[in-house]
Amino acid sequence: MALDRILINRAPVLTLWASVVAERLGFDRKEALSLGKAVAGLTAQSKGRRLGIFTPSPEAVRKARKEKRDKEFFVEICGRSVPAINTLEGIRAVNKAKPVEPAGVERYLEGKFSEALPVVRAAMSTLAKAFKPEQLAGEAFRLYEGFRPGIPEGVSGWGAKGELDLNRLRAMAPKK
To answer: How much is the pTM?
Structure first.
């Protein structure tokens, strides 16, 4: 029997989708996982600030201003500018001046999606491949908004699980 729906939080869905998009844009799997996790983190921070859950502390701002930026660059994924660096292992997103390790992201996704991970990844990959990379780069977040799990608005939806409808996700690919 095919898997049609799963109950899941939005963060792992966006992490996986952003990593699938990054792969489609030409990053390897490990680079894409690192970038995908950063996209979800940046999106959560932005939403948390909007909801009044997170506020940057003056100390955090002072500390951030002192960090060296000479080796860091930005990668645009799903409408987010992700800080990144080139490591010996490849490109990695940066969080709190440290590279985001892909193995940890893979474990996170396996824990959140469980046995559904390969099925969801395949559905997302099919959707991503339905677009030319240049087109996908501009449409990725809008596509995510079309299939992301529905949750309550505002603070009540923070961290809540919603239904990811894989049939809706599969139907979003343009017919050739």
So the answer is: 0.81
